[in-house]
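Continuing the series of single-chain predictions for the mutant panel. This is the parent chain; the variants come on the following pages.
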Amino acid sequence: MKFFVDTADIADIRELAETGMLDGVTTNPSLIAKSGRNFLEVVEEICGVV
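Parent structure:
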């Protein structure tokens, strides 16, 4: 079984990644837009965490 989180919240992603159980992240433009941040910056940061 693999565990994925569906979010653009970097803090949540970091917290889950620290558990060692997170296999990946799914997100979409709507979730990233809600973060108020630049799309590419968020995607790059997510890639750096996972």
